[in-house]
Design brief:
Blueprint (H helix, E strand, L loop, with lengths): L2 E7 L3 H12 L4 E4 L15 E3 L1 H4 L3 E2 H13 L4 E3 L3 E6 L3 E6 L2 E12 L3 E3 L8 E2 L5 E3 H9 L8 E5 L3 H12 L3 E7 L8 H9 L5 E3 L1 E7 L6 E6 L5 E5 L2 E4 L3 E3 L17 E3 L10 H13 L3
Parallel strand pairs: 1-2, 1-8, 2-5, 8-20, 10-15, 11-18, 12-13, 12-18, 13-14
Antiparallel strand pairs: 3-4, 6-7, 7-8, 9-19, 15-16, 16-17
Helix pairs in contact: 1-3, 1-7, 5-6
Bound molecules: flavin-adenine dinucleotide.
Length: about 300
């Protein structure tokens, strides 16, 4: 069975940086990325705002990724794209599924940098049917930015996470109407800079203390019943698309079965958004590189 000093799972900013840190510290490294491209979430973020701290520049996500990837490719690390890690075992082996099929490898240390997942609309348990036209903000971003698709023309956004705010700006810039952004809290979430640069600059109507009670429509969503959480008032908002920006959760699926009394085994560390959701990529890069380079 093949053996490496470090197995790094995930080829986003965290995995790329952790693998580089470990390779530059003289370890044998294998990085597995299930997608076809390295860069992770950076690839679908076409807006600027990456690298202000690290490079003193305002880069797009792909531009930022292009600063990280060559360093890893020029290092001794082995990189496999289109390769998913299906499971990690307590005997420090991993099951990989890649272009050549299934194989198991042995490792001394593992850095799990699998990123995060979006909270889904289904998790809210809202009444009504489930017609077409309902997307999480990340899925909408991927469809629009990577697929070149349109998700709709009259868009309602539920939740004020950063991705929803960035997408609200994108929709307005591309000639779509953002009917409103609804937020159940009494303040908008996300980073102050997104509130300024996306919501305020583009005059997106924001309704605080407001939620969606019911989805209206059968084949395609035609609107929602909104409710004010303080007054209880309910009213209909017409839209052809609902985008949910309900927040992100670290994706720790692969390590759940390895926890003993809530603790990770000593050979496993989490990095980047898989450890905790990071708003700014520069800190992900710094922390992940240091983790890869450290002795533990
Ligand atoms: C919409 C959005 C906008 C942002 N905007 C900014 C901004 O303007 N400025 C800024 O500085 N930061 C921004 N950030 C934050 C920053 O981009 C992220 O914190 C950072 O890129 C996260 O990197 P990561 O490697 O932890 O996760 P990811 O980039 O999500 O990478 C995880 C990778 O792991 C892979 N993977 C998962 N499971 C497996 C498996 N089992 N096997 C193999 N591979 C696997 C995935 O395919 C993915 O490529 C933004 C984030 C988002 C989501």
């Amino acid at each position: 069975m093949e053996h490496v000093d470090f197995l790094v799972i995930g080829g986003g900013a965290a995995g790329l940086s952790a693998a580089l840190g470990a390779a530059e510290a003289g370890r044998s490294v294998l990085l597995c990325e299930r997608g076809t491209l390295l860069g992770g979430i950076l690839n679908q973020c076409l807006h600027e705002g990456f690298g202000r701290a690290l490079f003193g520049e305002d880069l797009t996500g792909p531009e930022f990724a292009a600063r990280l990837i060559p360093a890893l490719q020029n290092s001794s690390a082995q990189v496999l794209t289109q390769t998913s890690v299906l499971s990690l075992s307590p005997d420090q082996t991993a099951l990989l599924s890649g272009r050549a099929g299934l194989r198991r490898i042995r490792f001394d240390r593992c850095i799990l940098a699998a990123g995060c997942r979006e909270k889904t609309f289904a998790s809210l348990g809202i009444a009504g049917t489930r017609p077409a036209g309902i997307f999480t903000a990340g899925t909408a971003q991927k469809l629009v930015n990577l697929g070149g698709h349109s998700v709709g023309d009259r868009i309602l956004i539920l939740g004020s996470g950063d991705i929803g705010q960035i997408m609200a700006r994108h929709f307005v810039e591309s000639g779509r109407a953002v009917v409103a952004l609804l937020e159940q809290a009494d303040h908008v979430g996300g980073m102050a800079r997104n509130r300024r640069e996306c919501l305020e600059a583009y005059r997106i109507p924001v309704l605080l203390r407001t939620t969606v009670d019911e989805i209206l429509g059968t084949g395609r969503i035609r609107g929602v019943t909104a409710r004010n959480l303080d007054t209880g008032r309910r009213w209909e908002i017409s839209c052809d698309t609902l985008v949910t920006a309900l927040g992100l959760l670290p994706d720790q699926t692969l390590c759940r079965s390895l926890l003993v009394k809530g603790q990770l085994p000593s050979w496993l560390r989490l990095s980047g958004n898989c450890e905790s959701v990071h708003d700014i990529v520069d800190s992900v890069v710094r922390e992940a590189y240091a983790l890869g380079a450290a002795s533990w």
